[in-house]
Amino acid sequence: MNNNTTVEKMKQMRLSGMAEAHYGSMQSANYQDYTIDQYLAMLIDQEWDFRQDKKIAGLKTKAKFKIQASIRDIDYTHPRKLDKNLFERLISLDFIKRSENVIITGPTGIGKSHLAQALGMHACDMTYKTMYFNTARLMDEIKLTKLQGNYMSFLKKVQNTQLLIMDDFGLSPFDQEQRQALLDIVEHKYDQASIIFTSQIPVKDWHGLIGDSTLGDAILDRIVYSSHRIELDGDTMRKNKLKRIN
Known about the structure:
This protein is of the alpha/beta class.
């Protein structure tokens, strides 16, 4: 049997992980350490891992995170009232399985976006479809897709994600078109998928920034009452970063 031919056939069959493992085993001759069943199982495991890694990398690229945040880098020592027990329960991602929301509020620089994106990156690691948006830019993109005539296609893509992150929610008031788009999103995701909101605005003031009383009630009813709340407070974490740099 020509091993190089076998490797090429594996590649043509898109079994790249298996091809790489087989080629490496032939080069090192460690295939002799396996039984036939063990060797086949090893090749399949390598192919599985290769495809999972590729899938996860694709999910992270499509999510369009602003930063590369990790749950391993969460700072629980900074005095910002971050409940470690609550956040570690969120890290289990059971809230996604139960289609619940997460709301992270607090002053600027306190690390809201970092926490949200760390959860988002972790969700991608667990192969959940995730999308990240700055809320104002999401609303701008919605207006653009309406002008271009592909709003429903864009909305479907947003709705089909298992975890949607809306960062900096409510920095500017919503107009009627944006309120309706927000309702379209949260109504579809209600009891079907999860949204993480970060905001400098306390939740008690969200009704006012949404504007319309009827739509505001409908939107908040779907957002707030199935949510986990993280309310941060304290000095900006950026000061500490500057001190470490200096």
